[in-house]
């Protein structure tokens, strides 16, 4: 089969034009497509490895741990940028993290190379850093219902830290250093456990916000009232016609974080409820009270699932009699799972609401990062 010269030239031109367009396209992509700082990342990773091989994680744990956190941040940011459309990638933060990581890892490595006698010079800075972190961390510890084991572990870490400071002041630098390492590890372990727990709990944040927004919008459409309880803010908010009318300070059950699972757990339930009964002064020992429809259907389903799965014993009772009531103002969480207001605040709320008024209880309407700084120096 013969191909005519004209058609042959046309095919050649099409092929040449295609090659040219591909070349230009490739050039433009190379020009505009941001590239990750691979060499810098490799250097940072090696610097961390070198520091670990010199046992910097044992000799100078704070500095080394900071380097590890920078490594995690660098890799996470790299992944986030790689997941974006290629023309929208921005690897500047990756570069910043890697530069800081290289600096921290080098410092940890240099310290580890130093003679043990140099601990006398280097340890004060480490002690000051851990003291700063403990001071910041105490705020979080005091505000959360920690388990007894976790509380004991943290107290032990603080006590050993004080022993470390005392040993340094008395000139026993080796003992001071050894105690410092133990104290740092104990405090870090506790912090990691708390951070993991809070991150899991705040995975419900979007659901909480949506639930509160739906309730407020409901009051606007129905020209009615509703109560929104924010546990972390220790706030009971009354909305009328879509607008916030009152905010009252509250006290909850001692185990206030999380959902109520069973009778006697001293936890305040979370979810969507409504007032089923108003109890005046003579009908309650808590000044005045608003009885809620706990347990609702979701509570019952969750409770039955836990019985079925064996996470709760069959003898467990789901409980009830959850109220918004008075006698609050004690300054700490003390109820059996109820929501306590000061008597004067209870009086204001009692007048406005009625049976059937929705009551939504959520963990927080603020993000975790807005409540606690979980990434400060030292941890």
Kindly state the percentage of residues in helix. Answer: 55-70%
In the sheet with the most strands, the strands line up as: 1-2-3-7-6-5-4-8
CATH topology of the largest domain: L,D-transpeptidase catalytic domain-like
| Distance separating the two termini | 78 Å
- Number of strand elements: 8
Mean pLDDT: 87
Second-tier CATH architecture of the largest domain: Beta Barrel
What count of structural domains? Answer: 3
Give the CATH class of the largest domain. Answer: Mainly Beta
Strand % is 5-15%
How would a crystallographer describe the biggest sheet?
A: 8 strands, mixed, barrel
Poorly predicted runs of 5 or more residues: 28-32
CATH level-four homologous superfamily name of the largest domain:
L,D-transpeptidase catalytic domain-like
Radius of gyration: 30 Å
Task: Based on Cα principal axes, name the global outline.
Answer: flat
Structural class call reads alpha+beta
* Strand and helix order: HHHHHHHHHEEEEEHEEHEH
Number of helices: 12
Describe the fold and architecture.
The protein is α+β, with helices and mostly antiparallel strands. 56% of the residues lie in helices and 12% in strands. The chain has three domains: 32-114, no CATH class; 119-204, Substrate Binding Domain Of Dnak, Chain:A, Domain 2 (Up-down Bundle); 223-367, Beta Barrel (L,D-transpeptidase catalytic domain-like). It has twelve helices and eight strands. Strands 1-2-3-7-6-5-4-8 form an eight-stranded mixed barrel. A hairpin with a 2-residue loop joins strand 2 (235-240) and strand 3 (243-251). It starts with a helix and ends in an 8-residue tail after the last helix.
């Amino acid at each position: 089969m013969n191909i005519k010269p004209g058609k042959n030239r046309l095919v050649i031109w099409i092929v040449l034009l295609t090659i040219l367009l591909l070349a230009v396209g490739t050039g433009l992509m190379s020009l505009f497509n941001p590239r990750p700082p691979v060499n810098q990342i490799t250097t940072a990773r090696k610097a961390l490895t070198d520091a670990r091989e010199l046992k910097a994680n044992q000799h100078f744990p704070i500095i080394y741990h900071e380097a590890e956190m920078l490594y995690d941040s660098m890799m996470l940011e790299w992944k986030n940028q790689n997941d974006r459309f290629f023309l929208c990638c921005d690897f500047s933060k990756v570069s910043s993290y890697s530069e800081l990581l290289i600096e921290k890892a080098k410092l940890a490595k240099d310290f580890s190379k130093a003679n043990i006698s140099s601990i006398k010079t280097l340890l004060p800075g480490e002690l000051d850093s851990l003291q700063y972190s403990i001071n910041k961390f105490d705020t979080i510890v005091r505000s959360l219902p920690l388990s007894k084991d976790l509380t004991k572990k943290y107290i032990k870490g603080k006590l050993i830290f004080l022993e470390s400071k005392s040993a340094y002041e008395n000139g026993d630098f080796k003992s001071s250093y050894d105690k410092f390492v133990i104290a740092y590890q104990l405090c870090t372990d506790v912090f990691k456990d708390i951070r993991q727990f809070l991150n899991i709990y705040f995975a419900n944040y979007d659901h909480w916000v949506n639930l509160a927004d739906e309730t407020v919008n409901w009051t606007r459409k129905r020209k009615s009232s509703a109560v929104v309880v924010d546990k972390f803010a220790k706030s009971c908010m009354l909305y009328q016609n879509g607008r916030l009318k009152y905010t009252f300070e509250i006290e909850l059950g001692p185990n206030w974080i999380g959902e109520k699972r069973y009778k006697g757990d001293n936890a305040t339930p979370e979810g969507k409820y409504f007032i089923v009964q108003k109890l005046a002064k003579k009908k309650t020992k808590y000044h005045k009270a608003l009885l809620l429809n706990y347990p609702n259907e979701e509570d019952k389903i969750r409770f039955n699932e836990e019985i079925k799965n064996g996470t709760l014993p069959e003898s467990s009772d789901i409980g009830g009699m959850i109220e918004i009531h008075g006698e609050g103002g004690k300054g700490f969480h003390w109820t059996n799972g109820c929501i306590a207001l000061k008597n004067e605040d209870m009086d204001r709320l009692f007048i406005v609401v009625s049976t059937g008024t929705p009551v939504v209880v959520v963990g927080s309407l603020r993000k975790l990062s807005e409540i606690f700084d979980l990434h400060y120096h030292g941890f």
